[in-house]
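Example complex used in Figure S2.
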Amino acid sequence: MRSTTNFEKTDKRQQLLEVAETLFARHGFEAVSIRQLAKEADVNVAMVSYYFGSKDGLFEAVLAEKFPKTRERLQLLAADTQLSPWEKLASTIDIYVEKFMNGRNFHRVLMREMSLKQRPQHVKLIAAYMAENQQIIRGFIEEGQVKGQFRYVDTEMTIASVFGTLSSVVNNSNLVTGMNEDNMYTTAQQTRVKDHLKAMLQSHLMVTKAG
Amino acid sequence: MRSTTNFEKTDKRQQLLEVAETLFARHGFEAVSIRQLAKEADVNVAMVSYYFGSKDGLFEAVLAEKFPKTRERLQLLAADTQLSPWEKLASTIDIYVEKFMNGRNFHRVLMREMSLKQRPQHVKLIAAYMAENQQIIRGFIEEGQVKGQFRYVDTEMTIASVFGTLSSVVNNSNLVTGMNEDNMYTTAQQTRVKDHLKAMLQSHLMVTKAG
DNA sequence: TAAAAAACTAAACAAACGTTTGATTTTTTA
DNA sequence: TAAAAAATCAAACGTTTGTTTAGTTTTTTA
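Predicted assembly (422 residues):
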């Protein structure tokens, strides 16, 4: 054993995880070979099986690293008693627009794994992570409804529209004038998406219009 | 040569095309092997290369068969002078909800190929087909704006929200209460999606509210 | 009906895949 | 510092992949 107090786990294990996140995001799960991962991480091919059991295990380890981060941010919003339901929703939009557009490659991989129902293990895991986060967002909308500030719209479909818009933008930026793969990280492009989502949600949800 | 007046082209060619549409839809492009295709179509493996040049060529032939059908329906709507812009938009929603939810497997493949930018040929082709159709829809919204019936919203982002919602529903039905892979073809589920999209678009677009 | 063209086939090709084996090196334990 | 445990490695395993080759059968042409 290398060290018992190693909070970063083994070097090579960590290297593999980081390279995996990058390469899976860039090329997709099946397009990345174990040899490619090993070479990029400067590690022997056998280490993937050694540390993660399999290529699938490595992918799941990447998920387990990334998902909890966003959930913590949402929980912070939920706990904030100063914010109105609409303000929470608006902040949620900000969070997710940035998350999707900055980390577009990673999100593309998730969507691909969800639509390609080839690996049920991945589908189940990702769906579970997503459901957790959406539950919190649903709380924001229902809070607004209870307080008489939001209409009683189809909450689940409304959330689907938000995430769907983001998927659409990330997967298909070329169908939006002026937007492309390379400027998606800019404030200008992200502001455009934020503004649209907020405007659309506001007219859809708000009982009384006004900022 | 088999026959010059063969409007169905060669039998085996057609068989391959049909099997390809089914199998690509069911499992995705890369998950289907040429041997699998050939076996299912009761054809020799070499016929794929013979008729379509490659597996990619076969995929592109499937696209060329499917896409024009929807475009024709949209063009019919565009040519109808009896319909208001909103009625055209509402019909468009009906068309696409049915198209996506009934042909969900096929649409999943398209989205996968778009997000997995691994095969630029496919991406370009699909994007071009999509852009053609979206151009027509854009016309409906702009017509409503010119006629003073619609607000001057971000048209492209609004369209992205419609298609995004559909993608989200099709890829992730399990996140919507009561909806799943197997009941998505039912009127009840499709009506739910249609109602949501129309309600959301109406409050987003309409200058004066009312059905 | 004989020659030419097209359709079709079985077999082989080279490359890439995820994973395992068995041995070696490095680190930890005591 | 010797024994035990963990980490690392090169090499090989068996499969599967998309495509091609070289030959045979079927159809069309004239």
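The radius of gyration of chain A is 20 Å. Residues 1-2, 10, 12, 43-47, 50 of chain A lie near DNA strand D (CB under 10 Å from a C1').
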